[in-house]
Specification:
The chain is built from five helices and three strands, in the order αβαββααα. The chain has helices at residues 2-21, 36-46, 74-83, 95-99, 110-115; strands at 24-30, 51-56, 62-68. It is 41% helix and 16% strand. The chain has a three-stranded antiparallel sheet. By secondary structure, it is of the alpha+beta class. It starts with a helix and ends in a 13-residue tail after the last helix. It binds copper (II) ion. The site of copper (II) ion (CU) has 6 residues, from α2.
Length: 128
Amino acid sequence: MKKITYTLIAAVLITLSATAQSKITKIILEVDGLCGMCKERIENAAYLTGVKQVNWDKTTHELDVVFRNDKVSEEEIIASINNAGHDVKGSLASAEQYEQIHGCCRFRDSNLRSKYGLSEALCTEEKK
Ligand SMILES: [Cu+2]
């Protein structure tokens, strides 16, 4: 009986410490994009190991990310999105990274933006 009690206490302690260690973080990033193809590209880029949930809203441009901060960092997620060619508020994609973006997804193009009813791009330097 004593042994069972100790085993139970040990099990409870292990469960408690595991819960304390797995740190689930939720962040919302503003990510520029236009269409459903952008959504797929952005979400795939953000879905790194340790990321539990991603959802980019085409209208609000908000990307919800739920991740384990002991497995992956916010910086790594942002870097991956930039690497896929998309601008994140506070961290724009380089010209080379943006170059990979498909012609119909050129979210910095002011003509395309107005077609989608979008206001000014996060990247205001380059209008092409
Ligand atoms: Cu697109």
